[in-house]
Each structure stands twice: as C-alpha cells, then as structure tokens.
Automatic annotation (TrEMBL):
SMART domains: LysM. Residues 457-502 form the LysM domain. This is LysM domain-containing protein. Pfam families: LysM (PF01476), SLT (PF01464). SUPFAM superfamilies: LysM domain (SSF54106), Lysozyme-like (SSF53955). CDD domains: LysM (cd00118), MltD-like (cd16894).
Length: 503
C-alpha cells in the first residue's frame, strides 16, 4: 500500500482586518469623503454572511434538517456528494451529504444515544443551531469547505459560544489557546475571539482546510482536529494505513478520538432527517441579526447599552468575545455588534459622546514593599499585570507607596465573583488537579528517593490501593517506592494487578 508522506506543519495566520470588516478602512487625505461614504453604504463581510444566513432560514422554514447544513439535489448539485449506503431501510428524506458519512456499528451506537439518553442534548444543540448553524455553514462554504462540517461544531460544543472544556478549549469550535492564536484569534485579558462565532469559524475553516490538505480525508482531518495532527500522523505510520476505520481498531488513538468521527456522522444523519427521527418540534432560536458600529477602545459598554435602550446582556450576546464590561483598552478602535435597527439610533444619540470607562474600583495599598504585580496576584489577574499597568499608567515593577490608590478593572458596585470574572476564579477540574499533584510528587521522589537496585520482594496492587497506602502497608519509604517502580509510574498511576518492588 502506498502511504502519503505526512509532515507536521507550522500554521500561518491568514486573517486580516479587511477580511473581518470593511469598517477598519482608514480615510486617506483627500479621499476621506469617498471612503466614509463607502463605509456607510457597504455591509461588512460579517453583515453579508449574516444577511445570507437570515435569508437562508426564511427560505427554509419548516425544513426537515438543521438549516445551515448542505442542501443536495443530486440532479443539479455542482459540488461533491456522498450517499449514505446501508441505511436505505431507515427511509430517510436526505441520503446525500457533502462530506463522507457512513452507517456502521459505531455510528449506529451514537444515533441510538441521541435518540434515547442523549435526546435532550440533541434537542438543545439543534435549538441553538437555529441561531448559529446558518452563518457557520455559509462561512464554511465560502472557504471551499463542506457545509456539513457544522456538525463538527455541534459535536464540539453544541453550538455554545461560551463552551469551555477541562483542557481549556473554548468556543463553538473548541480551540485550544495555542491553536487559536496560530490561526489569528486574539486571546488576552480583554477578549477571547475563540468565542466569536464568525471569527472562530473563519479560523476553523482555515485549520480544517489545512488538515484536509495533509491527510486527504475528512475522517482523518476530523480525527486530527480532535487529537492533533501529530497524533494522527503517528497512528498512520504505526499502523501503515490511512483509513480512519482501520486506525480506530488499534489501541494508539484514545477512545475520545475513536468516538469523535462516528459522533459527528450520527449528528449529521439525524440533523438532516429530523422528522424521520422524531424531532419535528424543535424550537429553533432566531438566527443572528446585527449591525456593526466602530467605537473607541476602553468604553463603558454598560453605560452605552443604557443609552441605546437595551440590556447589557444584549451586547454580551452579540459580542461573546468581549470578556469585560468595557471594550479592550489596548486598541484604538473596536468593531462592536449591536442589535439590528440600532445603528441609526447610535448615530443620533451616542456617536459623538464620550463613553470612556471610568467607574473602576479602587484599592488602597497597605504595605510599602509591593508593586503592581503583587496587586495583580492578589486580585487574580497575575497572568495579565499589563492590565493594571495600563489602567494606572504605572510600571508594573515600580514600588508602590503605602496609602496609594490603585484602579482595579472591576466596575464600581460589581462583585469580583461576578460571572464576568469567572475565568479568574474558576477552579480546575479534579482530574487536572490530580494529574498536577501526581507529576509534582514524581519530581519530589526522583530528587530524594533511593532506588531498590535488586528487588527481592514485590507487592501486587489491589483495587483501591494508592501509592501512599501501599507504602504504609509494606512499610516502604514512599520516595523509594516511587523511584523503584518508574517503569510503571512514568507512564501512568498504579492499577490493580501491577507488581511493585518494595524490598
């Protein structure tokens, strides 16, 4: 069998300001009036996608599928199509997809799950899909990708912009911080563009396009999206096959990745045949509808929303990437989405008014040996001390004086435990904490433990045992126990049946 040569890649950042919105065009000298007129008359690309999505929803009301996925009539469809073989007995309305979908044991398992125990999940995912799937599908199509890849986002997050995994993946496409930044998504203390359904979908389209280019298979591209291109590349080399279903039989890929592709396919089959599977009554959310305005960096969004006669939550809903109550302070201009129909209201009431954020809480310095970094650490913003430095126009290393007041980026009257600051105070999941503590304990043991060179006695691990309990039972020094059994402990924690050297 001839195997394609797979090489890891260094991703390039493709997104530019002009890709996202024409509102970033700057007037140039004597062309000021012309450019201003163009800015007023032309919709941004975001708005164009959104408008297309709304029209698509209006034209397909009552459709038997999640609007945003591909509509395929094989007699006149120009793109590549895939027929769902082996499922003819289901008497589906839609057997055609614009990406490979199969009907096998693994896919059936997930279909059964979403029709039974996971039925509520599917209904909620689909309802949110009414809001986001149409615009996601349009963006994917405009980037030359299958529309049915919206079901990958459905599998990742259930179309939630605020979704966050234990591994710190965020947004509808569940980007990890490093991958998100590689593909042009801005992530800092002020914003997290992984939450922006438009910008994140552009980044996901770029990433998926790259993955498909390397692997030549949507199944492998999806698996790599979940596990990483390096992991899938190594699996291909290990098992000498580029067939995902063959790779799935091996032990190298994690069960999460093995189930990921069939889960997407199950969602696609049900999502394009809602009535067949008994989902006729889904209450789809209304599609996104917004206008864009250009505002200053560092403006008070709560004050602006009051002037516009809307709730602050309306601003948050349309701009999920903004993490705080003000626009980012590290930019001069920011393109803000507001509810459709309010652009003229903004022009009349607010465009020429100053909404600079000033309602900051203050902290009085109690000691004489602290600096801004110490204050940032105290208020859980130590990963971004530049926030305090910018807000106070003060060097983060310069010594603070006792009694000096420091502005904090929390709003007056607002609890620091507000949901807006949940990212500052969230506690890691137990499994993450356990792994972290385990690695720390390994490091300590390696630095001070004495290895048993020629073991003469062994202990067989029983169910419920821990390293500490084994050390206590056998009266073995814990550090010695660890360094003497690193062939097991470097790979994983102990399991029932393991034999540990104790003397």
């Amino acid at each position: 069998m001839h195997l394609r040569v797979w090489k890891p890649f260094v991703a390039q950042i493709f997104l530019s300001a002009t890709l996202i919105s024409c509102s970033h065009i700057k007037p140039v000298d004597n062309k000021t009036e012309t450019i201003t007129k163009v800015k007023e008359e032309n919709l941004s690309r975001n708005r164009a996608w959104m408008k297309d999505a709304i029209e698509h929803v209006d034209e397909n009301k009552g459709a038997n599928y999640i609007v945003g996925s591909s509509q395929i009539n094989p007699s006149n469809y120009k793109g590549k199509t895939y027929f769902l073989y082996g499922a003819e007995h289901l008497k589906l309305d839609n057997y055609y997809f614009d990406m490979p979908v199969v009907y096998n044991k693994a896919v059936k398992k997930w279909i059964h799950y979403f029709l039974n125990r996971g039925r509520g999940f599917f209904e909620r995912y689909s309802a949110r899909g009414g809001r986001y799937a149409p615009i996601l599908g349009k963006i994917l199509e405009d980037h030359g990708l299958p529309r049915d890849l919206i079901f990958l986002a459905m599998a990742e997050s259930g179309f939630q912009t605020g979704a966050k995994s234990w591994a710190r993946a965020v947004g509808p496409w569940q980007f990890m911080p490093y991958t998100g930044k590689r593909f042009g998504l801005k992530i800092d203390w002020y914003v997290d563009e992984r939450r922006d359904p438009v910008k994140a979908t552009i980044a996901a389209a770029q990433y998926l396009k790259k993955l498909y280019g390397y692997f030549g298979s949507w199944e492998l591209a999806a698996a790599a999206y979940n596990a990483g291109e390096g992991k899938v590349g190594r699996a291909i080399r290990r098992y000498k096959t580029e067939n995902f279903w063959s790779l799935r039989k091996g032990r190298y890929l994690k069960s999460e990745t093995k189930n990921y592709v069939p889960k997407i396919m199950a969602l696609a089959i049900i999502g394009k045949n809602l009535k067949t599977f008994g989902f006729e009554e889904i209450d789809f959310h209304a599609p996104l509808d917004f206008e864009e305005i250009e505002v200053e960096g560092g403006i008070d969004l709560i004050a602006l929303s009051k002037e516009l006669g809307i709730d602050f939550e309306d601003i948050q809903y349309l701009n999920p990437e903004i993490l705080r109550w003000f626009t980012p302070m590290n930019v001069k201009k920011y393109t803000l989405k507001i509810p459709a129909g309010l652009k003229d209201v903004y022009a009349q009431c607010c465009e020429n008014r100053d909404y600079k954020a000033v309602a900051f809480q203050r902290y009085e310095v109690r000691g004489s040996k602290s600096n801004l970094y110490d204050v940032a650490k105290k208020f859980k913003i130590k990963k971004a001390p530049y926030v305090l430095a910018s807000l106070n126009d003060y060097s983060s290393k310069k010594r603070l004086k006792k009694g000096q007041y420091i502005y904090l980026p929390f709003r007056e009257g607002q609890s620091r435990k507000n949901a807006m600051y949940a990212d500052l105070y969230e506690k890691p999941r137990r499994v993450v904490v356990r792994r972290k503590n385990y690695r720390k304990r390994m490091r300590i043991a390696k630095s001070r433990g004495k290895k048993i060179m020629s073991p003469s006695r062994w202990y067989t691990v029983r169910r419920g045992d821990s390293l500490w309990s084994v050390a206590k039972k056998t009266k073995t020094n814990l550090d010695t126990l660890i360094v003497s059994n690193l062939t097991i402990l470097n790979r994983r924690q102990i399991r029932a049946g393991d034999k540990l050297a104790i003397r």
